[in-house]
Design brief:
The structure holds two protein chains of two kinds.
Chain A (H helix, E strand, L loop, with lengths): L1 H37 L3 H4 L14 H9 L2 H32 L5 H13 L2 H13 L6 H8 L13 H8 L6 H14 L2 H9 L4 H9 L4 H17 L2 H7 L5 H6 L1 H9 L5 H6 L1 H31 L7
Helix pairs in contact in A: 1-17, 3-17, 4-8, 4-9, 4-12, 5-9, 9-12, 10-11, 12-17
Chain B lengths: L1 H43 L2 E6 L2 E6 L3 H9 L1 H33 L5 H9 L2 H4 L2 H10 L17 H8 L4 H19 L2 H11 L4 H9 L4 H29 L10 H11 L5 H34 L1
Antiparallel strand pairs in B: 1-2
The chains are: A mainly alpha, B mainly alpha.
Chain lengths: 315, 306
């Protein structure tokens, strides 16, 4: 009986590893493919005897990428247009999440419903009119009012400026901000109430309590949300393509990279031609995800711990 | 007595004020960047909208936009159908496959932290252009079902199999399956994470009690695990629906609806009203799915939680 059980145990272990290793291969394949091809001379790409490990390494692919795309500038643009808002929206989401979790104020249910609404409505639904309100931006009619007094002030054009991502982030409605608010809300709900009460008895105001007592307990969850925010913003194509257009972020630069590359090679369109430049495309993709991979490698442990003790899953 | 009530009153008022102070940024943002555009875009669906000197100019046309999209435009319904189909497939596979993976990963065995780190890796790659770039070259278009789907053909595997005398059709089927696995697993990052955190919170005592009562592993799974994590199943379904519906797409592949809406409004045609009508119909479809998910899973989950 015992022996039989042991045999079953060994078989299960082997099966488990086979299953997991197989899936790992599937997940890692594109990354390995990217790395392998990015450093490969293009002649070896067609050489069937070279599969994974190139016979010689080259940086030519990266050289061409730098020629097609102003990597440094794109990187700086992305920092300003996407990464700064990611930090801002995490910061704001913290406050909103805490407010929803810890204060039984009138209208709380309504606000919560609004948060959920921002999560489930796809951004395209409101993009048309959002575009026109950015085009003639008028902060709740305040700018028009000022226009009557000072004629030089009037609605401003925000299209093409970083404000189209920064402003919504400042007001808690940036990219996927609703999800962040929700995560923070779940986390703060799970914290013991005594923390807050003890601080209140000691004469701490709500804001001080939050900053001094509550936030230090939330380190992991903040890192988790920050990582998600940075990644999602970094990869976001829709917002910059819609409201910025003229300035390239990493995502929009990647989207037009193939076309630009073809122009450089003076090729037509078609699959074969894309294949010709494949090593260069892989090099570009590698550049685009490199910062994220580094970030992930350093934060991975805290990230999964953060989500795990977030109480996001509410049992 | 009166004093006490007074104190209580001021306490609620304090709670009120502090609460509103904390959520204030969101309230302002919601009104400016969400509610106003939302109402406006709903109004646009009934209008012919053009870009004028001082903002958009509207001309009321009734249900014209909807009539055109549903009856005359050949691509709208087809796109909607494609996107909905792949969304449904992705949601179903994602919620089930990631539960399976999470159950394996949550057990105690050597190397599980390494496995976890690898499985969460797609989180940083999935939501982007890079993913579609890599997968289009690697060749995975997976569930969306558009051409050039022979993913691992560049490796020696297929050649090896061909030389081994396996029929080409069989190899094709095999590569297609592997190809589909790729796009499935890659979307599972966040769901696996959520499942793991939920599974870890099920008290061991519940399992022990069941085992003492003589329940089989099968029973334990259906009677304890599934009910306990049903709130997370719901959460994951919602997450997957949103993830799939807002995924990146160009007119060639991926989420074609996203691209079509943008093209209609901001491509050559500049038909803002039509674009808004498309977006609203798309949103309605998503809302119906979320509603169905709530009715089938969410309500039950809420009951169990209470």
């Amino acid at each position: 009986m015992v022996r039989k059980r042991r045999i079953i145990g060994v078989i299960l272990t082997i099966l488990r590893h086979v299953f997991l290793l197989g899936l790992c291969y599937v997940v890692l394949y594109p990354v390995l493919y990217m790395i392998s091809n990015a450093f490969k001379p293009i002649s070896q790409y067609y050489d069937p005897s070279v599969v994974w490990i190139p016979r010689s390494l080259t940086l030519d692919n990266f050289y061409i990428v730098f020629k097609v795309m102003d990597v440094g500038k794109v990187f700086l643009n992305t920092l300003l247009i996407e990464i700064l808002p990611a930090f801002i929206s995490t910061f704001i989401a913290m406050f909103v999440g805490y407010g929803l979790a810890r204060f039984r104020f009138k209208g709380r249910g309504l606000i919560l419903a609004c948060v959920i609404l921002t999560i489930i409505v796809p951004p395209q639904t409101i993009s048309t009119s959002l575009y026109s309100s950015y085009r003639y931006f008028d902060f709740l009619g305040i700018l028009s009012l000022l226009h009557r007094v000072i004629p030089s002030i009037g609605p401003i054009n925000l299209i093409g400026t970083p404000w189209v991502t920064i402003l919504p982030a400042l007001f808690g409605v940036g990219l996927k901000n609703g999800i962040f608010i929700f995560i923070f809300m779940q986390f703060f709900t799970g914290l013991p109430k005594e923390l807050q009460e003890a601080a209140a008895i000691d004469g701490c105001g709500p804001l001080r309590t939050f900053l001094r007592i509550i936030l230090p307990t939330a380190k992991n969850i903040i890192i988790a949300v920050l990582l998600l925010a940075v990644v999602w913003n970094w990869n976001d194509y829709y917002t910059p393509a819609m409201y910025i257009r003229t300035t390239d972020t990493m995502a929009t630069a990647m989207a037009s990279f193939q076309a630009n590359l073809e122009n450089l090679h003076n090729m037509g369109t078609g699959l074969e031609n894309i294949q010709t430049a494949n090593t260069q495309i892989q090099a570009a993709a590698l550049i685009a995800i490199f910062p994220l991979v580094i970030l992930y490698v350093f934060l991975q442990k805290r990230f999964s711990e953060g989500i795990e003790d977030s109480g996001l899953t509410g049992i | 007595m009166a004093k006490k009530r007074n104190k209580q009153y001021s306490l609620t008022r304090k709670q009120n004020r502090a609460g509103w102070l904390f959520v204030l940024p969101f309230v302002i943002g919601f009104i400016i960047f969400f509610l106003k555009p939302m109402i406006e875009s709903f109004w646009y669906t009934f209008n012919d909208v053009t870009m004028g000197q001082n903002g958009l100019e509207t001309k009321f046309v009734g249900l014209q936009n909807f009539r055109y999209l549903l009856l005359e435009d050949s691509s709208f319904l087809r796109n909607l159908w494609t996107v909905t189909g792949s969304m449904l497939a992705q949601v179903a596979i994602c919620t089930i496959l990631s539960l399976f993976i999470a159950i394996v990963l949550v057990q105690n065995f050597r190397g599980r932290t390494v496995y976890r780190a690898i499985f969460f890796l797609p989180i940083i790659m999935t939501s982007g252009v890079v993913y579609s770039m890599v997968s289009s070259v690697v060749g995975s278009s997976g569930l969306s079902g558009t051409g050039n789907a022979y993913i691992y053909s560049s490796t020696s595997m297929t050649t090896l199999m061909q030389q081994g005398g396996l029929p080409t059709s069989f190899i094709n089927i095999l590569t297609r399956i592997i190809d589909a696995i790729f796009s499935m697993v890659v979307n599972c990052g966040v769901p696996i994470l959520l499942y793991i955190s939920g599974l870890q919170k099920i008290p061991q005592s519940a399992y022990e009690a069941a085992r003492i009562e003589g329940a089989s592993a099968w029973d334990i799974f259906w009677r304890i695990t599934i009910p306990k994590i049903s709130p997370i199943i719901f959460l994951n379904v919602v997450y997957c629906v949103i993830d799939a519906s807002t995924a990146y797409g160009s007119t060639a592949g991926g989420n074609v609806m996203m691209a079509a809406i943008q093209q209609m409004g901001f491509g050559k045609t500049m038909k803002f009203g039509m674009s808004a009508a498309m977006a609203w119909m798309y949103f309605l479809v998503i809302a119906v799915f979320l509603g169905l998910a709530y009715l089938t899973i969410g309500r039950r989950a809420a009951k169990i939680e209470n």
